[in-house]
Amino acid sequence: MGIKDMYLLAYNAGMCVGWGTILVKVIGHLAEGRDPASVYPGIARLLCVAQTGAVAEILHAAFGVVRSPVGTTFLQVLSRLIVLYGAVRIGDTDSTKSLVFVQMLVAWCLSEIIRYSFYGANLLRVNLASLTWLRYSAFMVLYPVGITGEIGCLYKALPYIKKHKPWTVELPNKLNFTFSWYNTVWFILLGIYPYGSYVMYSYMLAQRRKTFAKSASERSKKSA
């Protein structure tokens, strides 16, 4: 195994452990009968590290470290960072105080644990049919669950954003420039998410068909 593969293995293992730890903390919190609205403080820092760490995947794709489309990778990471920093961590919003946050968080955790485990297994040349099936099938449920959770978190942050105006630039100013994060969030909710979700889901379905068709072809060749 070369240096590049060793680095990627360490990266995927670290990310898998990070998301796994978050999931264990969330399950433990809920198993104790505690309020779902109080989940966030216990995992806030780790969530920030784990999700921000995904920025490295954009660099991996951009510099050819992995064979992943840069555009798709960028959009996937960016959408989550917008939710994390533009709704969850932007202030004392209602985003983290409702079940939609837990819904989103669990979907993120399961998706990433499966994904990073799959990548790690590939680097070790371990072919697990069950893991491959999960990698290309679990998203059919987890993606809609995660997306609706993200939309819910952004929506629940709107009252706080409207009142406190974070990330907002108002006139007059020296640059004669104005920007409203409140209006931007509405644009993301109504303009970006409907189209972007369709594109991403269609892309993943295409990847699923391609992978399973290849597996079926290889099995038929072996049995011939």
Automatic annotation (TrEMBL):
It catalyses: a very-long-chain (3R)-3-hydroxyacyl-CoA = a very-long-chain (2E)-enoyl-CoA + H2O. It is a multi-pass membrane protein. It is an enzyme of class 4 (lyase). The chain crosses the membrane at residues 7-31, 100-118, 139-161, 181-201. GO terms for cellular component: endoplasmic reticulum membrane. One of its GO terms (biological process) is fatty acid elongation. Its EC number is 4.2.1.134. It is found in: Membrane. The keyword Transmembrane helix applies. The keyword Oxidoreductase does not apply. Its main location: membrane. It holds the Pfam family PTPLA. InterPro entries: Tyr_Pase-like_PTPLA. Pathway: Lipid metabolism; fatty acid biosynthesis. Keywords: Fatty acid biosynthesis, Fatty acid metabolism, Hydrolase, Lipid biosynthesis, Lipid metabolism, Lyase, Membrane, Transmembrane, Transmembrane helix. GO terms for molecular function: hydrolase activity; very-long-chain (3R)-3-hydroxyacyl-CoA dehydratase activity. Belongs to the very long-chain fatty acids dehydratase HACD family. PANTHER family: VERY-LONG-CHAIN (3R)-3-HYDROXYACYL-COA DEHYDRATASE. This is very-long-chain (3R)-3-hydroxyacyl-CoA dehydratase.
